[in-house]
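Wait, mind explaining this?

_____
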Amino acid sequence: MSLSYFSTNVAMLFITYGIIFGTGGGLASIPGFSITTVYFKNHISLASGCVICGAGVGALVFPYLMQYLLDEYTTSVTFLITGGITFNIIVAGALMRPLTPQVKRNPAPTQCNDDALSERTKLNSSSNSQPKYDAIAVRSSESPQTERVSTKKQHEYVSDKNCDVESTTDEKERLCENSITRNQSKYFYLRDPVYILYVLAVMFFAFSYITVFLMLPAKVLEDNESGEAVMVSLTSLVEICCRIAWAAVWDCRFFCRQDVRQTAMFISFVGAGVLMSLSVLVHTYTILLVWSLLMGSLMGVLWSLVVPVLVDIVGAAAMGDAFAFVMLGEAVIFLVGPLITGSLLDYSGTVAASFLFTGGCLFAAAIVTAAMKYKTILLPTRDIG
């Protein structure tokens, strides 16, 4: 970002701001999300919600800051100042420290691996009449004496529907869990249809999200109204509040279940699709303000579900790598989404076409979420004592 201060043409900006800053931003974003599973075991939803709301705070604050800098200084100085602000990422990254000292591991079998293997053997032999499966036990928060076992012959992932993990888990249990995870393929979730459907649903949602903030000012101007900046800011503020509030809700015992979270995601997609489609009937500033606040609240609910649902699908250990592929899909949408909505606006001459197309994307996300929930139900699981 700071190097853009020295740019004298658009070609240099493509390199400094586009390639270098874009690469650095992508590399800095993924650890910020994946680190939450290392520091938080019982409140992952709330922690990830606070992390995700950073984007909403940026959307709320930076437009005013950038406008002020551009009015007071030149474009080059604006790049220099925002580059200095961006350097604070280094401070944040320096605070991401491991909870325990790093110990060089002997590649030879350890007692931890032996314990993990014994645990898996005991689980497989606990069912006398059932065939032997490669199974991994997951502790249930509702009944500590109950172990939930995946019964797929070729185990690909563990879905922890009761996601509370005891805070008293010692280091040995954590290492044993990691040794079991290493026995799987590193990218096992890429063969999981539920994960593929999840990524597709998030991509549809990402397209709808950027359309709201791109087309909302155009909608205000089309209706010969003013105050588009205030409307966008209020929408971002409501979205931030809903992200944090609902992230805390998903940590509660009843809502900390995979089926409940996926159902909430489906309902939110349907509600957002209906609201988006009804936007073509709104032509007054007051009603449009109410519409934007409702849409911001639904967007906040959906963003608060992105990380918890992902953890339900792939597990906390694989969340970092899995979320990288999710962000890759979002990056593709952020690249082509404005082109699609802008083309629809140029072709039709009104924002109604863009909003209707976005509503269709939200309904498509709801259908994909329903298929994801159906696939999850079909996974054969059983409880043993």
Summary: The CA atoms of residues 7 and 69 lie 18 Å apart.
